[in-house]
Amino acid sequence: xxxxxxxxxxxxxxxxxxxxxDEIVQNVSIISGAANATSNLDIKTASTFLFTTxxxxxxxxxxxGDGSTTLNTMMDIGQSIVxxxxxxxxxxxxxxxxxxxxxxxxxxxFTGGAPTAGQSTSGYDxxxxxxxxxxxxxxxxLATQTQFG
Length: 149
Known about the structure:
Elements: E1 2-3, E2 7-9, E3 12-14, E4 18-19, E5 28-31, E6 40-42, E7 48-51, E8 59-64, H1 71-74, E9 80-89, E10 96-101, E11 104-105, E12 108-110, E13 123-135, E14 138-148
Parallel strand pairs: 5-7, 6-8, 7-9, 8-10, 12-14
Antiparallel strand pairs: 1-4, 2-3, 9-13, 10-11, 13-14
């Protein structure tokens, strides 16, 4: 625990509270398989997904709460979540072609344009989606692709 409190000294306000570390640490789902082997990313379990086997094809992931919960019902308008996929790579032909949210195709706004290939011939490719809920079942998706290794 990190403990802080509230006090005022010479015009300065110091804010302190108790913050549990588990509220700032996020879960990572480590998957012994390829990114193309799993189509659903259940964010009730984790928001970062590490695939440890080389990709064997291009993929589209569906982001949802879980099998019985939609992302739409989990989020309020004006909230955002960052979802990350880190994929072991050995062939630049394979990459994340698109995502869906609760089964609905999304327009992704990538920095530098949408990927047409993977980046890493050895190492990992990372995909990071900032998902902003803008209305009922409506999302703005800002995305990046990067190479590690």
